[in-house]
Each structure stands twice: as structure tokens, then as C-alpha cells.
């Protein structure tokens, strides 16, 4: 349990270090008007914060820097949202209110704006269609009597198409009967439920008899519904992230790139996120991101279109400004409804 004085000193050290990226000494703290303590008292408390794991001492300076434990305590108990960041909210509104650009263009512009503003890697992970419902499966015959296009349409407007070749000995009517059975079984079902529905329908005798169709159709359906679940990702700012002093080592950069391209994106597109989440350093559980913090927040354009906004930055992230900025953006994404 930290005393009020220790909390004030820890908060001051973290916010000073976020700004300067230099170890913080007692002298600079005595110059802060809200720390009305002697230099000796501040040094004593800094020593205590180091011994209890909230601060670390560097080898090259007598000052201290925050530890992961210190950042975690700060984020959970001490951070106060910076009201200054609200001056940038109008820029967010200008992008999202612009009816002259498409939804996709707005999201892309917003991603670039957030990255430029913060200097962090920014991703707006496209809406997962997991909660979307299947509206229609339909066969569209082509000029050739042996070819047709299979369409799958969802309630969010997503469409997948696939050319089907009709095996010798079968007719277009045979294919239409199969698709009609699947269409009836899957209508109104969410994408999340589809795999079970497909398995049950494929086991029915009338479909199993048409084995030449079955594999082609089922493989297409499975692939299509996987595409619906992926969603699209708009990202920007890797070069800005690597301009931060923490990322000057080539090996560190390579590890961060590998993590962002695989583990991070995969984990944040498949897990359900409720509210803003902040993962600091080793909390990320991703090899290569030990020096990073990841902040995520869910957004909803409407009841069917939902996704995640993600920042990757150094653990020395400006949490005071980043948290209210992300909260405002996530809450404003509903402006893209019906675009």
C-alpha cells in the first residue's frame, strides 16, 4: 500500500519520464510546484519505491525510471485523463462526418491521423461479421450448362461468390436442390453457428449421394465464412513507432514486426474485448513485445458491425492522452453507420 506522498512522487516520475525519456532524479522533482517536499524526503521515497518494485535504477544515471509494476499501478490508480487532447476531437469528427468519402476511406484516414498524432502503430481492425446472419444462398447459372456461380449474402451486406462446375451425369437442377437445402437450413443463422449447421446438413442422405458436389460446395462455404470472420485491418505507423528511442536496435525492430504481423493481430481479432484494455510489457504474452504497451478498445458502428482499435507503443506511452483519445474515437465510430 502506497502512501499519498509516494503516489504523488510515482505519478510525477512516470509523467516526467514519458515526456523526456530520461531517468528522473530528485532535483527535477523538487522543482514541481505540487511536490512541496524536501530533496531528502523525495530521495527517501524514491528509494522506497525502488525497493518495492515500482521504480528501477539505471546503470548510467542516479535517476530512476518506472518499472512494469510502476506503470501498471499508474494506469490502474493514478492516471488522470488529459483534457488537452480534446482539442483533437474535432479532427476525428471531421473525418467521420465527411459524407463525401466512403466508410473504408474514412477508417483509413482515421488510422493515419491517429498514428500521426500519437507516433504509435495504429490499427483499426475491421468489423468481424461473426454476429451477421445468413440472408441468402443462391445459384446463378452461367451460359455454359455445366457452370454456375454460388453466392452467399449476409445481413451486413457481405457477399462471397464461387464458380461451381457441375460434374458429368448431374444437372443444374441437382445443384439448385442442394443449395436450396443449405439455404433453408442456414437462413437467419449467425456466421458463428454456421460450421455446426454445415456439418449436420452435409450428413443428410440426399446431399451425401451427390458426393461430387459436396466437397466443392462445403470447402467454398467454409472458406467463405472464414473470410466473413476475418474482417479487414487498416493500419499505419510502424515507421513512427520505430523512431521512438526504445526501438533503435535492429533485432528489437525485427521482433516487433514479426509479433505485429502474427500474434498480435490474430489474438485481437479472435478474442472478445470488453472496454479499454491496457497490456504492459510482459503482460502482452507475445515474444518481441516486452518493451511495448498495447491498448485496445472495441467499437460498434451498429449492432452487426463491430471491431477493435489498437495502439502499440513503448511502455513509456502517454497514457493520459491516449486513453481519452481512444475512448472518444471508439464512441464516435457509430457515425459511420449506413455509409
UniProtKB/TrEMBL annotation:
<protein>
    <recommendedName>
        <fullName>Heat-inducible transcription repressor HrcA</fullName>
    </recommendedName>
</protein>
<dbReference type="InterPro" id="IPR002571">
    <property type="entry name" value="HrcA"/>
</dbReference>
<dbReference type="InterPro" id="IPR029016">
    <property type="entry name" value="GAF-like_dom_sf"/>
</dbReference>
<dbReference type="InterPro" id="IPR023120">
    <property type="entry name" value="WHTH_transcript_rep_HrcA_IDD"/>
</dbReference>
<dbReference type="InterPro" id="IPR036388">
    <property type="entry name" value="WH-like_DNA-bd_sf"/>
</dbReference>
<feature type="domain" description="Heat-inducible transcription repressor HrcA C-terminal">
    <location>
        <begin position="104"/>
        <end position="323"/>
    </location>
</feature>
<dbReference type="GO" id="GO:0003677">
    <property type="term" value="F:DNA binding"/>
</dbReference>
<keyword id="KW-0678">Repressor</keyword>
<comment type="similarity">
    <text>Belongs to the HrcA family.</text>
</comment>
<dbReference type="GO" id="GO:0045892">
    <property type="term" value="P:negative regulation of DNA-templated transcription"/>
</dbReference>
<dbReference type="InterPro" id="IPR021153">
    <property type="entry name" value="HrcA_C"/>
</dbReference>
<keyword id="KW-0346">Stress response</keyword>
<dbReference type="InterPro" id="IPR036390">
    <property type="entry name" value="WH_DNA-bd_sf"/>
</dbReference>
<keyword id="KW-0805">Transcription regulation</keyword>
<comment type="function">
    <text>Negative regulator of class I heat shock genes (grpE-dnaK-dnaJ and groELS operons). Prevents heat-shock induction of these operons.</text>
</comment>
<keyword id="KW-0804">Transcription</keyword>
<dbReference type="Pfam" id="PF01628">
    <property type="entry name" value="HrcA"/>
</dbReference>
